[in-house]
Design a protein that fits this description.
- With 411 residues, this protein is an alpha/beta fold.
- It has three domains: 3-222, 3-Layer(aba) Sandwich (Rossmann fold), CATH 3.40.50.620; 249-324, Orthogonal Bundle (Tyrosyl-Transfer RNA Synthetase), CATH 1.10.240; 334-410, Structural Genomics Hypothetical 15.5 Kd Protein In mrcA-pckA Intergenic Region, Chain A (Roll), CATH 3.10.290.
- The chain is built from 18 helices and 13 strands.
- It has helices at 3-14, 24-37, 56-70, 81-86, 101-115, 130-133, 138-146, 150-155, 157-164, 175-187, 199-211, 248-256, 263-270, 275-286, 292-308, 310-324, 350-357, 363-371, and strands at 20-22, 42-47, 74-79, 124-128, 191-195, 218-222, 334-339, 347-349, 375-377, 380-381, 388-390, 396-399, 403-410.
- It has a six-stranded mixed sheet, sandwiched between helices. A five-stranded mixed sheet has the order 7-13-12-9-10, with helices on one face. A two-stranded antiparallel sheet has the order 8-11.
- α1 crosses α2 (24-37) and α12 packs antiparallel against α15.
- The longest helix has 17 residues, at 292-308.
- It binds one RNA strand of 82 nucleotides through residues 93, 166-168, 228-230, 232, 238-239, 253, 255-262, 291-294, 296-297, 300, 320, 324-325, 349, 351-352, 360, 362-365, 367-369, 371-375, 385-386, 400-402.
RNA sequence: GGGGAGGUACCUAAGUGGACAAAAGGAGCGGACUGUAAAUCCGUCGGCUUAGCCUUCGAAGGUUCGAAUCCUUCCCUCCCCA
């Protein structure tokens, strides 16, 4: 196979799940020259250093990065430590606390651990954008900014929207796209990945690279993944996320709570299941041959398997049946460790016990939970928030509809 | 620099001296139903070992028996003009 057809094939594979690629032709050219000259493409994505918890939403682009790696290219995992210090333009109004150097490094390490479940560490280069941004002079900045216009800036949807609705837009927020674009220049990026909400920023990168006499990067926009609520983009702060570090049972169960209409999208963006198989399942579901529940279970199974392997996936599946069909405590339930000295006569105040699970954020909330019948200890519903309950090692505790726990007593 | 409008709980938003821990909706949470989900219904939604008490309405002071509401200063945002 010659370089051309190979490149075309790569591009086709890389287009899976992509919302927009600017442009496939450019990418094909770049890949062709990779095959000709052997120089891997630099594929970049930037990450915010303040939220080091990776969830399935992040993995959409990470998986795409991985795909590039598997085709022989180099991925730059860019930690936006400099940009992150100032505040995010997409953000609400909280001004961001400055992160210390240690915090950034610590977060970066946490990031790396999680990210390596998806990326190939051998082919991943971690960079911090402070390493070039901190030395920019005001004069440099003036030159860079002169390439862009206010009109362009405010035609951006999120700025435009805020202006229209009378919400503040900080001047410094205009610096964001500029700095991000400069990252691409510094890295001589060939490709940059991001969610569709990053369209503007990534396009700025192209423009600036052109200004600096570089070949513009290819921009790949992945769809935003809705979280378990099926409406909002998956995010930690909205609590609609499925974390890659969560135990198998949680991942399985949370996936099962995703609305049906997202099953197809999840399959497409989060698994390697071939597209024709996905459509086949979809078809069967529409015809009533495959129950949506079963379809979704396959999804949950596939996702757990990716992170934990086949055995754990099977167990998570069994646990799920156990918990929700037979209403029993699953084997994969989280453990609540209780020190014996926290008991009095083998008893503990129910509210205190609940707090140990971390679910209720206050005693009042724990009380409410009890009063509303959301708490079951050893299959006994508890309704009195004043109750001192007697507990034994291995007792099962259910909090709300999805919190399964097993009590572990220690000396 | 001039003029105007505002800042209320997670969000939107009522309330302009007492019945206000603060209407209404949304989100969230719990229960019922289900397929796990959606839809629907009911409940809940500042904190506190809770018939009670404590802290909230941009911030700090003040007036008052009593303040989210009145006064003063300060901080912040938006709009129009320059």
């Amino acid at each position: 196979m010659n370089h051309h057809t190979q490149a075309a094939k790569d591009v086709e594979a890389l287009l899976r799940g992509v919302e927009e690629m600017i442009s496939p032709q450019d990418l094909e050219k770049k890949i062709s020259s990779f095959y000709r000259e052997g120089k891997p493409l630099v594929v970049k994505e930037g990450f915010d250093p303040s939220a080091p918890d990776i969830h399935l939403g992040h993995t959409v682009t990470l998986r795409k990065l991985r795909q590039f790696q598997d085709l022989g290219h180099e991925v730059v995992f860019l930690i936006g430590d400099f940009t992150g210090r100032i505040g995010d333009p997409t953000g609400k109004k909280e001004s961001r606390r400055q992160l210390s150097e240690e915090e950034v490094l610590c977060n970066a390490r946490t990031y790396a651990e999680q990210v390596n479940r998806i990326l190939d560490p051998e082919k991943t280069r971690v960079e911090f954008n402070s390493s070039w941004l901190k030395d920019i002079t005001l004069a440099d900045l003036v030159v860079m900014m002169s390439h862009f216009t206010v009109a362009r800036m405010i035609e951006r949807e999120d700025f435009g929207e805020r202006i229209k609705t009378g919400k503040p837009v900080g001047l410094h927020e205009f610096l964001y796209p500029v700095m991000q674009a400069y990252d691409s220049v510094s890295l001589r990026a060939d490709v940059e990945l991001g969610g569709t909400d990053q369209r503007f920023n990534l396009l700025m990168g192209r423009d600036m690279q052109r200004d600096f006499g570089q070949e513009p990067q290819v921009v790949i926009l992945m769809p935003l993944l809705e979280g378990t609520d099926g409406v909002e983009k998956m995010s930690k702060s909205l609590g609609n996320y499925i974390g890659v570090n969560e135990p198998p049972f949680e991942v399985f169960h949370k996936t099962m709570t995703v609305p049906d209409f997202l099953i197809e999208k999840y399959f497409l963006l989060l698994t390697d299941v071939p597209e024709n198989e996905i459509y086949k399942m979809k078809n069967e579901t529409e015809k009533g041959i495959l129950h949506p529940r079963e379809w979704k279970k396959r999804l949950a199974y596939t996702i757990v398997k990716m992170f934990y392997g086949e055995d754990k996936a099977r167990q998570a599946d069994r646990d799920f049946e156990k918990a929700f069909v037979q209403s029993e405590t699953p084997d994969g339930a989280r453990e609540v460790v209780i020190n014996m000295n926290q008991l009095e006569d083998g008893k503990i105040w129910i509210v205190k016990l609940l707090k140990m699970t971390g679910i209720p954020s206050s005693n009042s909330e724990a009380r409410r939970l009890v009063q509303q019948g959301g708490v079951t200890l050893c299959n006994q519903r508890i309704s009195d928030p004043e109750l001192e309950v007697e507990i034994q090692n291995g007792d099962s505790l259910k909090v709300g509809k999805r919190g399964f726990y097993r009590l572990l007593l220690v000396e």
